Amino acid sequence: MKQKKRYILIILIIGIFFLSCERDDICIEPTTPHLIVRIYDKDNPNELKRINQLSVKIVDSILNFSSTDSIVLPVRVDLDETKYEFIINFEKEDESIDIISLTYIGEDIFVGRSCGYKTIFNNTSFTLNSKHWIDRIEPIEQQIENENQAHVKLFF
Amino acid sequence: MFIYFILFGCFATFAQNNTEQVVDSLIQNKYGLRVGIDLYNPIQALFDDKRKGLELIGDYRITRKIYLAAELGYLENKTEEDFFSFTTNGSFLKAGINYNAYKNWLDMENEIYVGIRYGFSTFSQTLHSFTINNDAILDNQQAIKDGQKFENLTAQWAEFIIGIKAEVFNNLYLGFSFSGKKLISSKEPDNFKNLFVPGFNRVFLNDAGFGFNYTVSYLIPLYKKKK
Asked: Across the interface, which of B142, B205, B206 has its CB nearest the CB of A78?
């Protein structure tokens, strides 16, 4: 009799093990990656250079960066192209704007229950449309798949 | 004095055991096929138009404490998440054994049981149109993508069940059970995941799940056997 009861207890404990369901209702995995730009000195191409006041305009939003050599920008998933206006000295007398356009082929990937789908960007291509304050740009990668490293170099 | 009390106590329990044994040997248990339906899904469907289905249950007693058990059903369920929603549509079959751990008095036929099941389901997932999860800065430039239907999907799993069945009228039983489940294998859709499986319910991150149901069933008695 005691043996039987022990047996049942063991089964019950195993059952409780089963019931430890891992919750999946918070999004913790990485989703659509951002474009990461690193800024270098045009006269010393291997040296990073900080910009004091940089503003980037994407569609209707303006992102401000101060005293940084590394900027993170969102990429559009509704089109195959994103245009960025790189503005230094925003709304001042010596304001200067250069436009960089990024084209790509988006690929949708399922992440999970809470995160949904993300888009990664393949076959990326950068174009500098004017040269008011930016000297040149150099792509590092052919795709934007994650945020582990920079995707393009900007020289000024 | 003390010794007399102990002796009396021993004699009393001995006498009681004897009486129990005598009465038990006169009792016959009913054996037969019990069929019923799950009430959880129909009741849920009254309040929630995202879920509709039917589950039939059955069990067959093979020894005093052991029953062969099976459940068969179909389910259509819509799941709504933050960035997408999908509808699962399919049928399932579960088969296994229940062990009644409850010692019934006299000729009562109630159960408190533990059981195991092997479950199998075939189903389709229809992913409805969804939006891509992107930076909130671009909320006005959201991408709405077409969904698609994934067909001929399957899943297999194991269940551990704890339940109760009580005979409320002659041969009519009400039951309640709780189960812990774990997926064994499944055919997953391309670039999506089986987040819900009929018969298994919601699939959690580690492929585990749980469920409960309440049932009503009727025993078709076939023969009787000594307890």
From this structure: B142
